[in-house]
């Protein structure tokens, strides 16, 4: 039973990852100075349906993946700017 559940879960996750038009990109995000900032940016992005693949306050970078049919890169940047973060 456990194996069936795991297979079903994997199938659902795979389908979700393949549906829609996804874009993966790295943003230079300025204003993150610590792990608390990283957490805030991650939380904000998750709330709007953006997957954070990696984040580094030290490198001022966020690697993310999102569904372009749901949100644009410009919209993501606009939302983060509301929290005081800036970009190149």
In brief, what are we looking at here?
Helix content is 45%, strand content 27%. With 88 residues, it is α+β, with helices and mostly antiparallel strands. A hairpin with a 4-residue loop joins strand 2 (51-56) and strand 3.
Features:
globular, 3 helices, 4 strands, Alpha-Beta Plaits, four-stranded antiparallel β-sheet, 88 residues, alpha+beta
What's the structural blueprint in terms of helices and strands?
Blueprint: H1 2-18, E1 22-30, H2 35-47, E2 51-56, E3 61-67, H3 73-82, E4 86-87
Antiparallel strand pairs: 1-3, 1-4, 2-3
Give your account of this protein's structure.
The protein has 88 residues and is an alpha+beta fold. It has one domain: Alpha-Beta Plaits (2-Layer Sandwich), CATH 3.30.70.100. The chain is built from 3 helices and 4 strands. It has a 4-stranded antiparallel beta sheet with strand order 2-3-1-4. It starts with a helix and ends with a strand. The relative contact order is 0.21. About 6% of the residues have low confidence.
């Amino acid at each position: 039973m456990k194996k069936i559940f795991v297979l079903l879960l994997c199938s659902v996750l795979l389908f979700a990852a393949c549906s829609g038009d996804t874009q993966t990109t790295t943003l230079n995000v300025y204003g993150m100075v610590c792990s608390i900032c990283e957490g805030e940016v991650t939380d904000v992005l998750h709330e709007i349906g953006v997957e954070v693949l990696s984040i580094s306050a030290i490198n001022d970078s966020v690697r993310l993946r999102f569904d372009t049919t749901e949100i644009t890169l410009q919209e993501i940047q606009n939302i983060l700017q509301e929290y005081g973060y800036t970009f190149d």
